[in-house]
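Its record is retained below.
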Amino acid sequence: MKILVTGGAGFIGSNIVDSYIEAGHDVIVVDDLSSGCIENINSKARFYQVDIQSTEIVKIIEEERPNIINHHAAQKSVPKSVDDPILDANINVIGLLNLLNAAVSAQVSKIIFASSGGALSGNTDVIPTSENCEPSLISPYAITKYISEKYLHFYQITYGLNYTVLRYSNVYGPRQNADGECGVVPIFMNNILNNNQSYLFTYEDMPLGTTRDYVYVADVCKANISALENGDNNIFNIGTGKEISISEIYNIILDMSSRSELPLIRKAERKGDVRRSALCSKKANKDLKWEASTSLHQGIRETFSFLLSKHR
């Protein structure tokens, strides 16, 4: 199968590329390297350094004619989306529409789309949250992800372009950048290794911090493998269903580092921050035959080992 992966030089995308190549697929990587790293790209993949908003990506899709497009290129920061909603919309919505039009023209059979379960399920009292929960759109990032899902549905009913939406909880693992909210695990690891202070952005009534559902990147790759042939025209949560506070994550990493105590410094919440988040993935268990199998401690240990190998 020929698969084009946008954002294939990024943290999640590059791990998925590796999984596809290991499974014997022909993989094309498209990435503008604005946040991805060329070192992440599998040597067996063909690489195009292209922005998904450009006309060049249309030409690439027409020439390559992939069976499937796996779309992971995105503006992925909630705080950045609050600061610059236009940038967020241009990348996450206009970029997607550019891909969808090219996919229809090139007769691509399916789009696998990386959405956000955490952002869309925000501030509900039902934890873990299912796909049926009414989205809580409290950030431009959440809005653009939700709109993107609606456009996928439109292109399916109008042009017959199939899709599978994977709504991720907080993904972590090797190659993750310490570049904001979505990179809290490597941020804490880097700070601890360098004996630097870390900060806890949280609400006044949540002294241990906001809560998240952390899923290991290797488990996410398995969901993307399954989505190649399963889950057509449906939306799936990809998470562990387990809610844990940011301070608990920090303490696990601190204990693992064998460093002296380095307490978190508390700061006020950031605009757009979801208070609590954990995803119910029973639908993915049933229809994708998928479940998260990596424990949090095991995943953090493997992530820390990877970071240490780069730190030396």
